[in-house]
Amino acid sequence: MYLTPQRILLAGATGLTGEHLLDRLLNEPTVECVLAPTRKPLAEHPRLDNPIGPLRTLLPQLSGDIDTAFCCLGSTLKEAGSQEAFRAIDHDLVLAFAERARELGARHLLVISSLGANPQSNLFYCRTKGEMEEALQAQDWPQLTIARPSQLLGPRMEIRPLERMTAPLSQLLPGKYRGIAACTLARALWRLALEDNDGVRIVESDELRKLGK
Boundaries of each Semialdehyde dehydrogenase NAD-binding domain copy (predicted)? Predict the structure, then answer.
């Protein structure tokens, strides 16, 4: 069964995937409004509501009825500067965003996690992502979609030398381990948002690539 989301809440609209997703949402005639809080102003659009400031500060101020929420928040250990700072974004802030989205009436949350997310992982990154997924499921969403992409491919504002080196190799890997273009992930997220299936759905990277074609 499919539905048409009308009012969207989007976190991470200036990120690699978030930019592609925002562009798609604003070009969908069925989307009434996109509420996208960001630190820096976005290009104006008649159907875009763009509060400016730190997301954690803005969350209590957000208002209006929301149908669907997308969380494209994400950082790296290097960008965050420490494990504590990374967890504050990729775990704590994601959960705070989800809680606020639910308060605003959203019944479907779509969140970008990561390949290998597992609360029992020995790797801090994967463990944090897994704990985030586990905590979101505990929020008891009517519909929760967790996307687990492999390495994201596409131009970024910030320089990530390791990703530049590994990106060509990631496209040669099999199945869910193969790299996925951010624009493909964005298309997949929108298609998943149109599904009306109660419960939790975890979508691995190989399925995301198929959905995003």
Answer: 7-108
* Separation CA 86–CA 93 (nearest Å): 10
CATH number at residue 50: 3.40.50.720
Check residue 213 and give its pLDDT: 87
108 in any annotated domain? yes
Is residue 114 assigned to a domain? yes
DSSP for 48-81 reads EE--BS-HHHHGGG--S--SEEEE-----HHHHS
d(CA 87, CA 65): 29
Kindly state whether residue 74 falls inside one of the protein's structural domains.
Answer: yes
In this prediction, residue 176 carries a pLDDT of: 74
User: What pLDDT score does 162 carry?
Assistant: 46
* Cβ neighbours of residue 95 closer than 8 Å, sequence gap 6 or more: 132, 135, 136, 139
97-136: b (≥16 Cβ within 10 Å) or e: bbebbbebebbbbbbbbbebbeeeeeeebbbbbbbbbeeb
Question: Mean pLDDT in each 10-residue stretch from start to end of the chain (213 residues)?
Answer: 79 96 95 97 97 97 96 92 96 98 97 97 97 97 97 66 51 68 97 94 96 93
